[in-house]
Amino acid sequence: MLVKWCSKVRNMKSGKYPLGQSGFTMIEVLVALLILLIGLLGVVGMQYLSLKQVNNTQFRSQVALHAQTMIERIRANEDEALSSAEFDAWEAELVQDVPTADGDVTFDAANGTATVTITWDERQVDNDADQQTMSVTVSVE
After folding, report:
1. What Rg, from alpha-carbon coordinates, does the chain have?
2. At what angle do helices 84-97 and 26-76 cross, to 10 degrees?
3. Number of domains in the chain
4. pTM of this prediction?
5. 114-126 per-position pLDDT tens digit
């Protein structure tokens, strides 16, 4: 037993390894690093898509807020029409929060309704701008 052990120690010192070699080779380490790199690239890609969708969600929230603001202005005026200064102020606030947005308000006297329509651009997964539209119709009577 002692002779076998001394032989193994002597072989290790001389650079000869027994058949049951332990440890990693350079190729194994490189393959492991490649697999880790692919996984990390996937995580980075998912983070990028997540940030893009958060930005789109923020635009949608701002658009909904501005549509509700216009509806409240219409209801506050009761029987009077909105002045162009009020509409321009609302549209300026909208463009300040959502730079690509365009707002429009139409009144239907026959039905007693008002429709607030806002159109804006969103970035999609393939980086193409996709035009979105939100319309809200309310009774003004």
Report:
1. 33
2. 170
3. 1
4. 0.64
5. 899 999 888 766 6
